[in-house]
Design goal:
alpha/beta
Length: 264
Amino acid sequence: FRSHLDGSPHLLTPEKAMEIQVRLGSDIVMALDEVPPYPSSPEETRASTELTLCWAKRCWRRFLELEHPINPGQVLFGIVQGGVSRELRKRCAEALATLGFAGYAVGGLSLGEPKSVLLELLDAIFPLLQPQAPRYLMGVGAPPDLWDAVEHGVDLFDCVLPTRNARNGCLFTSRGRLLIKNARYARDEKPLDPECPCFVCRNYSRAYLRHLHVAGEIASSVLNTYHNLHFYLDTMEKIRQAIWFDSFVEFKQDFLIRYQAAQG
């Protein structure tokens, strides 16, 4: 690829990807993979999956060769690819499982495929992986998606939604999304989410947050991001409690009813 700074060419190999992440001291090092676009032809998806498997083996070998002076506890995760093909997803998962990664990510989903397809693929993939290994769903998602994915066996997530939406004035609350730029909040002195204990909800009104957003103040992005990240962390805490108390279905239904009750 070419640098976005000066256009200079750069080659990122599986080996170099390992070396960079080890030097950074990453807690979880991710294998280099290729994500096929959605939709892709069967031939394109198969070639991409085989390339991902080839790179995974090279990443695994190089990771084992390296010393880890910055973070001795580093672990390496493999990434299951295969588009929306159940056959290729299973082939990729089975091949990665033989290498014995510390954990497994599922990539290349939430790119436009129906959610039912995503959940069906998770059900097909996870039984093929070591049961004790953490399962990480990449690029997901909206708060209701977290509940659905955990119900199908996911442990870890990453997603740009909390921060990207925050910068655009879209905030997540216990009663759904709230668009702070809307004029209806211009004189609204209530907290962003009356049920949220975060710093933002305890100290700033909707009217003030709207003012910051409309004025283009950087504080808008900072405070909105703080709240959205708190909301996501709090949602995951609720999920853990639901599992602990063996009341997942009840907790999930209560969350979804309240979250979908109103949209800002």
